[in-house]
Write a structure and sequence with these properties.
The complex is a heterotrimer. By secondary structure, chain B is of the alpha+beta class. In chain B, helix 11 (374-392) packs parallel to helix 20 and helix 17 (549-576) crosses helix 18 (602-611). Chain C is of the alpha+beta class. Chain C has two domains: 2-83, Beta-grasp domain (Ubiquitin-like (UB roll)); 88-162, [2Fe-2S]-binding domain (DNA polymerase, domain 1, Orthogonal Bundle). Classes of the chains: A alpha+beta, B alpha+beta, C alpha+beta. Chain A binds chain C through residues 1-10, 20, 23-24, 27-28, 31, 34-35, 38-39, 41-43, 49-51, 53, 55-56, 79, 102-106, 108-109, 189-191, and chain C through 1, 3-4, 6-9, 11, 28-29, 31, 34, 50-52, 55, 58, 61, 64-67, 69-72, 74-75, 77-78, 118, 121-122, 136-137, 139-141.
Chain lengths: 287, 789, 165
């Protein structure tokens, strides 16, 4: 399982990286943490011609923790989400999500930007970005632009990135007082990709839920707000009938496929169970 | 066991393995670590189809690729080697077509090697392999066990007429009558999906043919260098004394690295043809496709029970999908045969009817993998016994006690034809019940059920066949030695060098043998140096398989040690003018047993024996190196054990969590408790993996749906529980050492215990699961059939 | 510029491996584990899967564990790499090695290098951990021989010394 023949370049700047990627759009791919890309290369499932190593670009490590938004550079490694006091204070959902990711060796190398750009529908961070209402800061040959995470994931492992574009950073709104977060998933073994998972960001006013965002992963083809489920929860009190309405809505938002060992109906069933348990956590849990 | 074999200090001690000093320092030397001058690397082009005609192969592009030395197909390779036939001659009706090294007109399984690309580096071989063009005509495959029996489905080998490789029945007593009269009949269908050993180190070898003198040296990650020496010699027509097979450190074997692989012989052929060393180390993708697979059976079984809870009969019907050919030497009818000969053996019933059929399918060959058919023989009766016990309102433990064969009845012959004696069925169960605090767990289970938490307790008793003797393979025609040997040499400085035919892939058998040598000669453990794995320098032997290392190799070491000691004492007696009867060896000193005083050191004896024979009486026969071989007389020996699993099952998701595992094992005399316990624990890990996680998945067209470690799941540290291991010791009466073998016990018992525990957890729902592995979806499907809860 | 002109098939790297500076010209496609094993002949790092699941290829990059098969040799430029050969016999690593030997927490030894490195990272945090937390942390290192129990015992024993609860 040796990777196929390939060439490599280490650009000195973000601009140069975008330029090279734009010029060789179909044949060049960015290399950051490499935890997904290099596995694909070794398995000969991918055969790009040129790897553009962006893993040392300081411009992609630009993070800031203001009183408003929190900005995390694209090269923020998963372990930093776990280790950083600042992240834990400002974005308490992220360390909990990171704890589900692979294992220490993966977390030491894998990056936030890489996870979002790869857009694996079983990954936690894309779902968190959408649930938290994050904004993706994109660098490209045409200049910088921003896009809401909710609009970023456009299909199965597809994003809105255009040729030559790279995620530069992710901006998260500061967590508001009283918002509760739940993340949970079902996987066969610790660190495996989730068969079903969900993230809930629910502003709470006493027992009443505000505008809630529920995002599933694992049993979906992309990270997006589950509209019916979120609507069924938003503006309601967390009563038994609300819970049942939310559970009923799950089947309207999710249309998973059969995959080896998991029928679609099984995935739906797991999603419903996770949702039920997550709502129980909402009633009991602190932020 | 005689009094004279109460041996010294080292046997029975928990001595750490000396090999670990190297292995924990990154100084192991595994097959892929070895480089030979001018060595080439081999990668295979394999069939992407389970069944397909090869219409054309074009190797031009591949040959032109960078670094490529050769691209070899059946046309070049197959004529170099005698075909392999995996038929056990003594099994009536067993048949298999001969197997050639590379696929010729048709590929018969997905992954079958078709072309060998040999290049300067592995990467370049893989690059070129992608350039080999093969025109395939996919054919309809057959891949499920019952489909293989269906006359409307394809026949893998048309010349055989149908897919039945072997059909064997046992009938003893009158099972039909027993079932007709039974108060309770429990039965079910069972499905065991295909699995594989998935050693962390894949298979590999470096074949090095020296065209100047016609010698073949193969560095081979194989559990039996002797088997391969014989095979290479006969199949490549090289005189056997010109063939050397040497095993380096091996990263796990578990029986999988015991099998005969055409792709390994083809690598040897490549070396012979090219006159250069050729390394073939399978990568994980190749290993998944090419490693001998295991299990893949469907069975139906039922048990007849009397009103007072006595098992009166069993019936079993087994169909095993053994792949595209019989496995050469390590016949793949073994799983089915072990099932029907051992099923229910611990229990006292004599009416029995069983049938096993091995069928050919368009899949990789089934081969040896830890436990072979013994897990099935444990699972079926244990699952059914629990059901019967529940129906009758008898506690499952009590049910077993009522049915265990009694010591007074030993030796006895089971209806499956297994001779039993020297077992500790009751004593082991007694110990287990205490070890796990059975009553407390039952109480906890009952309490938690009221809170809708569903835990299961499973206890499974098993027997393990160990240390097969000549009657096992001999009549089959397979040239597999069940004899092992030990060569001991007193070094001039007084230490001992031991060359054993037993091999060690991590079990610690070399440590055990060193302990035996140390005690039987009279030296410290640190004064014994071990050499193993070279087919040319030890007595001819069997290597590592079927839990035989201590049983056979240890007995040989004991015999050799005694011989050497006698020779040393004879020399010491001549040197010191002391009668032999007054001398012994203790801690490397020859001592006078009367006075207790040391009279001469081993080092001084050796110095004289090697360099100062001029000081000895004329014609004194100095023999300071000895060889001793040992073979048992029996078909096999029987060890017993019992295990318990405690699980929690989430009925809303189907997920199962292991909470605890306990084992009580009787492997006879324990040479090294530390190593024995860890063998049990390791086997348990694999057993739990087999029941809950592992599966080669085939889709609706017969194509594999998984193929990597991402999608073939092995349990990791967080998926396994703490494992408590205890022992009962019933020494094997027929040997001096009294050891019985332990290598497979952990896996066999764990599979039984987890099967029973998960079904116990489902019992309140009035449902059962009998399709392994117990994935969450299968658990949910079983719950969907629930009759209550 | 064509892709072939933009990128390089060979890259010059300077890497500190087990404390020694190594300068080498590496192929773009070569992963770090193969670089260590083949160019530097440090064969203590093993390949079990080459797709990042089994952890047998675990090394330290700038003091943190990483899968050698999921890192290019080219990415190691300017980095400090430590392997089992470099860590062997020193400090907490040596205590882990002794514990592994004493408790037979290794059988075939193929997972052991990677397992030790991951355990070393955990132990180096000097934070008390429960057995289940140790199990979780080691869940990226596959062992087929031991059933993990003795490994957990070994790591727990060393952790108890360096980070008493």
């Amino acid at each position: 399982m040796k990777a196929p023949n390939i060439t490599y370049i280490r650009p000195c700047s973000l601009t140069e990286a975008c330029h090279i990627l734009a010029e060789h759009d179909d044949e060049a791919v960015p290399l950051a943490g490499g935890q997904s890309l290099l596995a694909a290369l070794n398995l000969r499932l991918a055969a790009p011609k040129l790897l553009v190593d962006i893993g040392e670009l300081q411009e992609l490590r630009d993070s800031s923790f203001g009183s408003g938004d929190i900005r995390l550079g694209a090269l923020t490694r998963h372990h930093e989400l776990l280790d950083s006091d600042e992240v834990r204070r400002a974005l308490p959902l992220l360390p909990r999500a990171a704890a589900f990711i692979g294992h220490a060796g993966i977390r030491n190398r894998g990056t936030l930007g890489g996870s979002l750009a790869f857009a694996d529908p079983a990954a936690e961070l894309p779902a968190c970005a959408v649930a938290l209402g994050a904004t993706i800061s994109i660098a490209g040959p045409g200049g910088a632009r921003e896009l809401a995470a909710a609009d970023f994931f456009t299909g199965l492992m597809e994003t809105a990135l255009r040729p030559g574009e790279l995620i530069a950073a992710v901006r998260f709104p500061a967590a508001t007082q009283g918002t509760r977060y739940v993340i949970d998933e079902l996987s066969r073994r610790h660190g495996d990709f989730a068969v079903a998972g969900l993230v809930i960001a629910a502003p709470m006013d006493g027992k009443r839920v505000g505008e809630a965002r529920i995002v599933y992963f694992g049993c979906v083809d992309r990270a997006q707000v589950a509209r019916q489920v979120s609507t069924a929860l938003s503006g309601r009190e967390l009563t038994q009938s609300t819970v049942e309405a939310v559970i009923d809505a799950v089947g309207e938002d999710l249309a998973p496929d059969d995959t080896p060992g998991w029928r679609a109906e099984t995935k739906l069933r797991l999603a419903r169970t996770l949702t039920r348990r997550a709502l129980a956590q909402l009633t009991g849990a602190a932020a | 066991m005689s009094e004279a074999t109460t041996i010294g200090n080292v046997i029975g001690a928990s001595i750490p393995r000396r090999e670990l000093n190297r292995l924990v320092s990154g100084k192991g030397r595994y097959i892929d670590d070895i480089k030979l001058p001018r060595m080439l690397h081999l990668a295979y082009v394999r069939s992407p189809h389970p069944h397909a005609r090869i219409k054309a192969i074009s190797t031009e592009a591949a040959l032109a690729a960078a670094g490529v030395e050769a691209v070899l197909t059946a046309a070049e390779i197959n004529p170099m080697c005698q075909p392999l036939v995996g038929v056990a001659q003594h099994r009536p009706g067993h048949r298999s077509p001969p197997q050639k090294l590379l696929a010729e007109e048709r590929a018969l399984w997905q992954g079958q090697p078709v072309a060998a690309v040999v290049a300067a580096t592995r990467a370049e071989a893989e690059d070129a392999a992608a350039l080999v063009e093969i025109a395939w005509e996919p054919l309809e495959p057959v891949w499920l066990p019952h489909d293989a029996l269906d006359a409307r489905r394809p026949v893998v080998h048309p010349e055989l007429g149908d897919n039945v490789a072997f059909d064997f029945s046992i009938e003893k007593g009158n099972a039909a009558k027993a079932f007709a009269e039974a108060a309770v009949i429990v039965g079910d269908d069972f499905r065991f999906e295909r699995q594989q050993a998935m050693t962390l180190e894949a298979r590999g070898l470096i074949a090095d043919f020296n065209s100047a003198d016609g010698t073949l040296t193969v560095h081979h990650a194989h559990q039996s260098p002797f088997q391969m020496q014989d095979l290479y010699s006969r199949h490549f027509d090289i005189p056997e004394h010109k063939v050397k097979v040497v095993a380096p450190d091996i990263g796990g074997g578990f029986g999988m690295k015991l099998n005969v692989y055409t792709e390994e012989l083809a690598a040897v052929a490549a070396s012979i043809r090219l006159g250069r060393p050729v390394k073939y180390c399978a990568d994980r993708l190749e290993a998944f496709l090419g490693d001998a697979h295991a299990r893949d059976h469907v069975m139906s079984a039922r048990m007849a029970v009397s009103a007072d809870g006595k098992i009166t009969a069993m019936e079993v019907d087994d169909v095993g999908a053994v792949g595209a050919y019989g496995m050469p030497l390590r016949f793949n009818v073994a799983e089915g045969m072990m099932l029907i000969t051992m099923c229910g053996a611990p229990y006292d019933f004599s009416d029995y009817k069983a049938r096993t059929r091995s069928v050919y399918v368009n899949k990789n060959l089934i081969g040896m993998y830890r436990g072979v058919g013994m897990p099935f023989a444990c699972i079926l009766p244990e699952v059914l016994a629990d059901r019967a016990a529940n129906q009758l309102g008898i506690d499952p433990v009590e049910f077993r006690r009522r049915n265990f064969r009694r010591k007074e009845t030993f030796p006895c012959l089971t209806p499956g034809g297994q001779r039993l004696q020297g077992l500790s069925l009751q004593a082991s169960l007694d110990k287990l019940v205490v070890s796990m605090d059975y009553d407390a767990l039952r109480a906890e289970q009952t309490e938690l059920r009221k809170r809708s938490i569903y835990r299961g307790i499973g206890i499974a008793t098993f027997l393990e066949q160990t240390a097969y003797g000549p009657p096992y393979y001999g009549p089959s025609g397979a040239r597999i030695s069940t004899q092992d040997g030990c060569h001991l040499r007193l070094e001039p400085s007084g230490t001992i060098r031991c060359v054993t035919s037993i091999t060690d892939q991590g079990q610690g058998t070399l440590t055990g043998i060193a302990q035996i040598v140390a005690d039987s000669v009279g030296v410290g453990y640190d004064d014994v140096g071990m050499i193993a794995g070279d087919s040319t320098i030890s007595p001819y032997g069997g290597g590592a398989w079927a839990s035989r290392g201590m049983m056979v190799g240890g007995e040989a070491a004991l015999g050799a040690g005694r011989k050497l000691k006698a020779n040393i004492l004879a020399l010491a007696g001549a040197i010191t003018q002391t009668p032999l009867g007054d001398l012994d060896i203790v801690a490397s000193q020859v001592v006078n047993t009367g006075t207790g005083m040391a009279v001469i050191s081993l080092a001084d004896v050796a110095k004289i024996g090697y360099f100062r024979q001029d000081t000895l009486p004329p014609k004194f026969d100095v023999q300071l190196s000895v060889t001793h071989s040992f073979v048992t007389g029996e078909l096999c020996y029987i060890a017993n054990g019992v295990q318990a699993s405690y699980v929690e099952l989430d009925p809303e998701t189907g997920f199962i969590k292991m909470l605890g595992q306990w084992a009580v094992d009787d492997c006879g005399r324990i040479i090294n408790p530390l190593l024995v316990n860890e063998q049990v624990r390791g086997g348990i890990g694999q057993g739990i993996g087999a029941v809950l996680y592992e599966e080669c998945m085939y889709g609706p067209e017969g194509y594999l749906e998984n193929g990597t470690m991402i999608d073939y799941l092995l349990p990791m540290a967080a998926d396994l529980p703490d494992i408590v291991v205890e022992h009962v010791e019933t020494p094997e009466a027929s040997t001096d050492l009294g050891a019985k073998g332990i290598g497979e016990a952990g896996l066999i018992g764990a599979m039984g215990a987890v099967w029973v525990a998960v079904n116990d957890a489902l019992a309140p729902f009035g449902t059962a699961i009998t399709h392994q592995p117990f994935t969450p979806e299968r658990v949910l499907d079983a719950l969907a059939k629930s009759t209550r809860g | 510029m064509s892709v072939a002109e933009s990128g390089h098939e060979f890259i010059d790297v300077e890497v500190i491996v087990n404390g020694r500076t190594v300068r080498s010209r590496v192929r773009a496609r070569q992963h770090l584990a193969d670089f260590l094993r083949q160019e530097l002949e440090l064969t203590g790092t093993h390949l079990g899967c080459e797709h990042g699941v089994c952890g047998a290829c675990t090394v330290l990059i700038d003091g943190r564990t990483a899968r050698g098969c999921l890192t290019l040799a080219a990415q190691a430029h300017g980095k400090r790499i430590e392997t089992v050969e470099g860590l062997s016999g020193q400090g907490a690593f040596a205590r882990l090695q002794d514990a592994f030997i004493g408790l037979n927490a290794a059988q075939c030894g193929f997972c052991t290098s990677g397992m030790l490195l991951t355990a070393y990272e955990l132990v180096s945090e000097k934070v008390p951990r429960t057995r289940n937390e140790i199990r979780d942390y080691l869940s990226g290192n596959m062992c087929r021989c031991t059933g993990y129990h003795a490994i957990i015992d070994a790591v727990a024993s060393v952790l108890a010394e360096v980070a008493p609860a």
